[in-house]
Amino acid sequence: MSNQVKYCTECGKEISSKAVVCLRFYLGRNKYGIISIIFFWTFIPFIISCLHGVKLLQMSDEDFNLLYC
Ligand SMILES: [Zn+2]
Fold first, then answer.
1. Which residue segment(s) compose the domain that 45 sits in?
2. Of 2, 49, 58, 69, which has the fewest beta carbons less than 10 angstroms from its beta carbon?
3. Which residues of 30-56 are buried (b: 16+ CB within 10 A; e: fewer)?
4. Count of structural domains within the chain
């Protein structure tokens, strides 16, 4: 069974030929995603996520695509 690759149509990253786009854990912020999982039992990630969510909602679609796509 061969595992052929192709390139993500969104970011150009190499992905499996069966995938449509690459999966990006926590919008590519892997360290923050892992820290959030480790400290999920505190309210710190919740508070930071709320602040980040507000920031994302205020961002234009163009700015979002430039940063995260
Ligand atoms: Zn991608």
1. 24-69
2. 2
3. eebeeebeeeeeeeebeeeeeeeeeee
4. 1
Mean pLDDT by 10 residues, the chain (69 residues): 78 85 80 88 90 93 83
| Separation of CA 30 and ligand 1 centre (Å) | 14
pTM > 0.85: yes or no: no
Closest CA to 11 of 2, 23, 29: 23
Compute the distance from residue 8 Cα to the ligand 1 centre, in Å: 5
CA–centroid distance, 43 to ligand 1, in Å, is 30
CA of 55 to the centre of ligand 1 (A): 22
**63 alpha carbon – ligand 1 mean position (Å):** 17
